[in-house]
Design goal:
mainly alpha
């Protein structure tokens, strides 16, 4: 057996990690590749020759430069079910769909239970608001002393209109009070009382038959629009710019109509504006309903249940008032 068949002695190796290589190649560093073009790899497996040969005991006081550091194995990250990244590598808070506008978010709509709970909460709040409004309308219509009082004291109506205006813009424009309990409920309650008083005051100027007929038509319109929004594939939320223009045009037209009618009452002009406003607010109801339902281009965040109830309630009341004025002006 030749000399080359025996393993080299410990003293003969300049680097205990690697035996000498033939061909004139340079000696590698002790811990993995660190030369040009090679990244540092501290977790390499032990190579032959890294430990001393049998019978060779290193000095305990000598630093063990020949032994690589013990690095614990790297475990893959554990992905919990609540983590934003699921096991398929998709974002559970939205798959890169269109971001919402107006502070809305469609992030939590992937969970059907969250969506259904949000819809129930919105419609329960809106139902409570409508019950309060119907109660005001009934009292102001059937109770003659109250009806006479609100007709003679129009200043109370303008005070309620100011309260309505302030609370509406606070709830619409300020996200903090709108989401902070109990301020959101308090503001919504004040807003509902103010608008209910306004609605009852306007209803007191019309006879009982017109009020009941307007209530029935409003209920029918709201049911049809809600069922249509749940079933249709038409996305009203993708036409946000069009609805913004409709709102601005309706607002300006209402101011002009109010100024003209204050000087001279024209029944056909009053009926025309009431019909246009009823149609526009019906379209607003369809738009806001799809924002609450979700699964469209835009949707309201589940945290905005107060905002959703506010929008639906305002649409329904405006539809009722315009239908009432349309029926009352025609008589």
């Amino acid at each position: 057996m030749s000399r080359s068949d025996f393993p080299p002695n410990y003293e003969e190796t300049s680097n205990p990690l690697y035996p000498p290589q033939g061909g004139g190649y340079p000696q590698p560093p002790p811990y993995g590749f660190s030369g040009p073009g090679y990244p540092q790899q501290p977790g390499m497996f032990p190579q032959p020759g890294m430990f001393p040969q049998p019978g060779m005991h290193p000095n305990p006081n000598m630093p063990m430069g020949g032994l690589p550091p013990m690095i614990p194995p790297v475990m893959p990250p554990m992905i919990s079910p609540n983590d934003p990244l699921n096991q398929d590598g998709h974002n559970s808070y939205g798959d890169g769909k269109n971001e919402d506008t107006e502070g809305f978010a469609d992030s939590s709509w992937n969970d059907k239970s969250v969506r259904h709970a949000f819809i129930r909460k919105v419609y329960l709040i809106m139902s409570a608001q409508l019950l309060v409004t119907v109660a005001f309308v009934a009292v102001f219509t059937f109770c003659m002393p109250v009806k006479a009082f609100v007709i003679k004291n129009s200043a109370v109506y303008w005070v309620s209109y100011g309260v309505f205006f302030v609370t509406y813009f606070v709830l619409v424009c300020c996200e903090g009070p709108r989401r902070r309990y109990p301020w959101n409920i308090i503001l919504l309650a004040v807003f509902t009382l103010a608008m209910s008083y306004m609605t009852g005051t306007i209803s007191s100027y019309y006879d009982t038959k017109s009020v009941f007929l307007a209530l029935g038509i409003t209920a029918l319109v709201c049911i049809v629009v809600t069922v249509f929004c749940f079933q249709t594939k038409v996305d009203f939320t993708s036409c946000g710019g069009l609805f913004c223009v409709l709102g601005i045009v309706l607002f300006i037209t209402g101011i002009i109509t109010a100024v003209v009618l204050s000087f001279k009452y024209i029944p056909w002009l009053h009926m025309l504006y009431a019909a246009i406003a009823a149609v526009v607010f019906t379209l607003f109801l369809a738009y806001d309903t799809q924002l609450i339902i979700g699964n469209r281009k835009h949707s309201i965040s589940p945290e905005e249940y107060v905002y959703g109830a506010l929008k639906l309630y305002t649409d329904v009341v405006n539809i009722f008032l315009n239908i009432l004025q349309l029926i009352g002006a025609s008589k």
